[in-house]
Structures are given as C-alpha cells and as structure tokens.
Amino acid sequence: MSPHHYGWLMQNAPSPCSVFLSRLLPIERWALLVVLGMTLARLVVAGSTLLSADEAYYWQWTHPLHLSYYDHPAMVAYWIWTSTHLLGETALGVRLPAVLSSLAVSALLWDCARIAFRSRVVGAQAALWLNCTILFGSAGIVITPDAPLLLAWSLVLWALVRLIVGGQARYIYIAGLGLGLGAISKYTMLLIMPGIVATFLLFPALRPWWRRGHTWAAALLALVCTTPLLLWNFQNNFASFSKQLNHAFASEVAHPGANLVQFLASQVGLLTPLIFAFCLWGMIWALWNGGRAKHPEWFLLGTTSLPILLFFIKHTQSGVVQANWSGPVYIAGVITGVGGWQSLSNRSRRLNWAFTAAPALGLAMTLLVYFQAVTVALPIPVKIDALKRLGGWDELAAAVHQEQLAHPGTFLFTQKHEPTGVVTFYLPDHQVVFLNGGYIRPPYYTAADVAALRGRDGIFITRDKDDGAADLAQYFAKVTPLRKVRLHWGRQFSDAYNLYLAEGYRGGNFVQGDGQPGAFDAGIAKP
What we know:
By secondary structure, this protein is of the alpha/beta class.
C-alpha cells in the first residue's frame, strides 16, 4: 500500500464516536441524547440559581468535616467538600456532585434494566424514563443526602441483578460496598435490606449464597464502610440513631388523611402522572411474575420498591412524609414499569399510547420546571410554587451584612436552622450563624466559640411568621428591632425575616457540649 493510499484511508476512516453511534439502536440513541442533554441542562440550572436552605446547611457541614452528623450521615458533606475544593465555594461547586451522580445513576439503571430483562430496548427506555421525571431531575441538581443515596442504591441493585443473572462472586462485593456507602449517605438505605434478604431466602437457586464466604466478606466490607457513622454515634450518646428511631416510630399525628393525600399527590406530581402509574403497575407486576415465573431478578426489583412505598404510605399515619423520601423506590419502579410492559404480548398492550406518551409528558414537565427555576417567568402564584425556596436568600444576607457594618463586632444567631447556611454562604466573609436552643451543638462551630459569646451583642435573624424575639429577654440585657427583610421569588414577595439587635449576651441560650442532651453554655442541662 502506497503512503498516499494509506493517508487517504486514514483521513476517511470513521471516527470511534461514529462507529459507536452506528452500533446503537434508535431508542438507544434517543436515550443517550436525552441523558446527556438533561445532564447539560442540570449544569446550567445548578450554576445559575441560588442554593436552597438545605443545600447551604449541608455545605456548612464541611467547615470542618466530621465523621457524621446529628441529622444525617456524612457522605453528602464529603462530596461537597471535594467539589468545592476543586471549583470553589459557588453554587455549581456545591452542586456538581449531584449532577455527576445523576449521570452515574442513569448508566447503572440502564445496564441493570438491560440485564434484568435481557433487552437493550428496555435498558435504554428505563434510562430515558428516569431522566424524564421531575423527582430525578431535582435530585440531579439539588445536593442533599438523596444524591449519594440514589447512587449507592442503584449500585446495589445493579450488582445484585448481575450476580443473580451471571453468578459471578465479584458482584456481591460491589453490592456490599454499595450498602456500606449508602448507609453513610442516608438511613433510608436500611429499607433495601428486607427485599434483598427475602429474595435470597425464597429462591432455592440463591440460598447457597448464605453459606459462601464471599457473602460474609461482603457483609464485613459493608460494616467497615459504616465505621464513621458508628464511631460518631458512639462518641455522641447515639444521638443520631435516637433521633431517627423516634422519628420512624412516632405514633401520634394530626390529620393523617391529609398527610396521605399530600404524599400521594406529591408522588404523582414529581414522577409525572403517567410514569408514576406505570411504575406502580410495574412494581406489582415484578413481585407477581418474579415469583411465579422464577425470575429472582424481577422479584428483587419488586421487593425493593413496592413494600418500601407501602412503608412510606403507612408512615403518613404517624407523621408528614416528604416527597423525596421515597425517591429510591423508583429506581426499581422505572425498570419494572418499562420492563414489565415490554414483556407483555402485543395483544395485551392496550395502552401503548400512554406508554409512548409517558416520557414525552414527563420530559416536558421537567424542562418546564428547569425553565421556571432559571427565569421565574411563569405566572405561578408564589404560594404553590415549590421553587420559591431558591429565591431571596441573597437579599437576606445583604441586609444582615448591612446591619453588621452598622453594628461592628456583633455575632449572628437564629432559632431555626433554615437561614443558618444560606446567610453564611452569601455573606462576603462566610460568618457563622449560631443556632439557639436544640439538643446538640451544630458541627460548624465549637464549644470555645460559644463560650466566647458572653457579654457580646448579637443580630437575631428570625422568620416573620415564627418570630422568636420575645424569648430572648432572659438571655440578653436589651433586644431592639432593626428591620424587616422582604424576600422575593422573581417579582413576587415570597417570605419575610425580622432582624433584631440583642445586646449584652448573658449566657444560657446556646448548646456548648456534645451529645444528647447537650449542656448549655450557662451550665444548665437540657430538660
């Protein structure tokens, strides 16, 4: 071959990207386009909107890092710490791990669905559907413990489906790693265990795994991963475990019917209506057909979705259940909804129009939410616009900063955690906001910091609807109103905070010690 002919071949050879795309099915190309397009959209939204109160609160946990925290395990703080050290303390720097983890979850779910149903079409459709839900679209931007939880949950399901189908022992170690990392992400990870245990007990082909050393070595790996969580609770009188147990088994609540309706409505809205309907049907289908047709991988997907959803429905009778708590349920729910439907005979698919319309409707609704988050252009009343939690925090921080300049040397404090992180994040010097009352000292300041407050003046930040200034008289020599700060979402008034000057702190208002109950700085034990 002449050099000229070789050069011509090299110039006209197809690129690796074009070769890869040519091997994909049409639905796989569409799914890839949607996944990558939605990832790009999440990057835009993440970098152009203010942090929510919860996000900034978790950002505070990184100053400094701890083994674990009273509210949740520490994985979200580890992620934020790493990202902000790479990109700086910006909104995108805080949220980037959520965006990247959504891409990883999509890949794991894609392959999990493909393996479970032996279908490239099901794999691509499942990834497409997941990215067309508002719930996943939000989790891929807003950085909370749900982001690492969804990744760990997806990793466990992917590894166990591959283990069941292929029988290779290495996947049980990946599952163990996922369980351990999930446990230090959010306590919800424990809810996946009953479904796993049931699957490996009920199917004879899987029972030998209980006798194999690989299983117990993987369990040990999971336990080792939880060391930071266990050690922190041991050092702090098991405060976090106690909080979660009391929350999970609360027995008295007002308006249980309203809680149930609110929770179910939130699931329909955040999953989008058609996708929610197919997910619910798919969970039931997987449980029934997984057992009857001896498909343990389907049964696993069913037991790690429907029973957990029923648990949260039951929990509405003892407390308010936040819409995002059930998020992991829909990892398996989307797979079974798509895979179950594609497993039906053509004659049985009388609602094919709905199956086709489900991701289109979901994608349109999710993109509409993204558009509103960035532009606030839709005329939605602020009372029903959940995105309002992204607005106004810079206004509050600016007002606080002005009062700091007018009253040099003052410290900042509030009675609820919501403004602590966002005010600190948007202040020029990231000054700490102390939290009065409570059971345990927040992790972002020390006992010595609390002790140093005696005799100083402070600026009290309190929500207008929950104004707590009247409770400060016993702790300060004088409390004087400064101003009311009106927060806005777009052009609409969304909330209001009051600022007070509290002079001559006497002590007794802040938790100084560790553990639960914590000792206050005046030496008075929490009653």
